[in-house]
């Protein structure tokens, strides 16, 4: 459908930004899966790269496509990371990420990268962060009940992410995810992010602020780059 076509356009353009010899971070989610498929095609045609994945799922897909995978024991710096996002705020290019469950490794990989290229379909563009998605916050399972209460006491409506069989969702890092509803008026993303990071029991959150180098938006008629 139109959204899949838009995602694919964005993913192909993003993968084309990879140059021979680069060390690349591979994102997580459905758009990043399309990026990884395109990278696999380019590797089969002779592109020489080393890559680090932001989730076990992306690692598995990349290995299946014979993309040369490495790790941070061998690569301390990545030239470029390509990832998706749940929301991209117009103007600031601040992101909400994490509904794919991979925010912790995604943020670690993004922080180790010279550039972060985000590939999205147009639905992801928002004026106000949190207007479509809640903010995923990764928390330690031990005492999560007390951490959720602390988040609620900060004023965030907070719900533990559950799997279909009624158990808490568990991340690659063996943590839980809490979905926090962001205030839609007067929310300061920088202060709010710091407040979340300073909350005991919180490992990391899905606000990616001041980290985005470029956003490529797939559209039916082509692509737009912010
Ligand atoms: O979790 C994330 O941040 C991922 O990038 C993911 O949410 C993006 O989703 P999509 O590419 O499947 O729409």
Automatic annotation (TrEMBL):
EC class (word): isomerase
Residue numbers binding substrate: 28-31, 83-86, 97-100, 124
UniProt keyword annotations, A-Z: Isomerase
GO molecular function: ribose-5-phosphate isomerase activity
Record field: transmembrane: none
Matches recorded under Gene3D superfamilies: 3.30.70.260, 3.40.50.1360
InterPro entries to which the protein is assigned, alphabetical: NagB/RpiA_transferase-like, Ribose-5P_isomerase, Ribose5P_isomerase_typA_subgr, Ribose5P_isomerase_type_A
Pathway entry: Carbohydrate degradation; pentose phosphate pathway; D-ribose 5-phosphate from D-ribulose 5-phosphate (non-oxidative stage): step 1/1
Any one GO biological process: pentose-phosphate shunt, non-oxidative branch
Catalytic activities: aldehydo-D-ribose 5-phosphate = D-ribulose 5-phosphate
Keyword Iron: no
Active site, UniProt feature: 106
EC number: 5.3.1.6
UniProt feature coiled coil, ranges: none
Record's function text: Catalyzes the reversible conversion of ribose-5-phosphate to ribulose 5-phosphate.
PANTHER family, per database record: RIBOSE-5-PHOSPHATE ISOMERASE 3, CHLOROPLASTIC-RELATED
Oligomer and partners: Homodimer.
Family stated for the protein in its record: Belongs to the ribose 5-phosphate isomerase family.
Protein name: Ribose-5-phosphate isomerase A
Organism annotation: Tunturiibacter lichenicola
